[in-house]
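Supplementary Note 2. Why include the ligand at all?

Several targets in our set were suspected to adopt different conformations when bound, so apo predictions alone were not considered sufficient. For every target with a known small-molecule partner we therefore ran a joint prediction. The input for S-adenosylmethionine is given below.
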Amino acid sequence: MTLHFDEAAARRVETSYLTSDVVEQRRQVLAALAVQAGESVLDIGSGPGLLAVEMAVAVGPAGRVVGTDISDSMLSLAAARSIPAGAAPVSFHHAGVDHLPFPDVGFDVAVSTQVLEYVEDIPAALTEMRRVVRPGGRVLILDTDWDSIVWHSSNAARMKRVLAVWDEHLVDPHLPRTLAGSLSRAGFLVDRAWTLPLFNTGYAEDTYSGGLIPTIAAFVTGRGGLSAVEVEAWAADLRTLGPAYFFSLNRYLFLARTPG
Ligand SMILES: C[S@@+](CC[C@H](N)C(=O)[O-])C[C@H]1O[C@@H](n2cnc3c(N)ncnc32)[C@H](O)[C@@H]1O
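The joint prediction is reproduced in token form.
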């Protein structure tokens, strides 16, 4: 079973998405999309709504931002975000990427960050995304390939076991390597693909990986033979590595457009 975004998990994700690592990720997403005043933007799997609100500021009062998600806990966090004055109206809806409750060609831009790796039917999801974006509109997809992780531990064998179980939190922990092909087959034109490393040296709680530790611990405990004691030892080791702490993981970003 993949990661379930209940209230506790949603709050942990929100905390780690407020770190400077993920603030920088959103800055790159916004810069690549180059959203214009007045544009209509769809954020699929909008989670805690941080990117949606930033896009609402970017498109301004003549624009529109719509977020969708399948987690009620995430939708509650998103709905509670304050919208700065002068931003576009933002609404959040309960909907899966495979069934978007919007008419054809209604959006200039669609974005989906860290979502498609949770999805079973990628061709159906991309077909649905293409349907709701106007001809010539832009789509940005960001996902992680968990083979790109380098995470130092005093116990390499235990780290390997934890990460093997953690791979089960996604439908496809290696989605990025097939995304360019899937986008092309769905009729998108891929303009740009690049990586964004998340890199933390020296342990700090308020980093992406510092915030990830409790999320992984909650997911892997009791799976794959990992006991609570073993997982606590894994987490405690990382938190006490001090300057020897080393974490690196790649996000992969794809900027595409619909023909027309
Ligand atoms: C890791 S969070 C990312 C949230 C947000 N996109 C961000 O980057 O801040 C993944 C989100 O995708 C949502 N999600 C998972 N499967 C989905 C689906 N089939 N359709 C829509 N949202 C989905 C989850 O509920 C969760 O909120």
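The mean pLDDT is 97. Residues 5, 13, 17, 44-47, 50-51, 68-71, 74, 96-97, 113-115, 118-119 surround S-adenosylmethionine (CB under 6 Å). Comparable summaries for the other entries are listed in the accompanying table.
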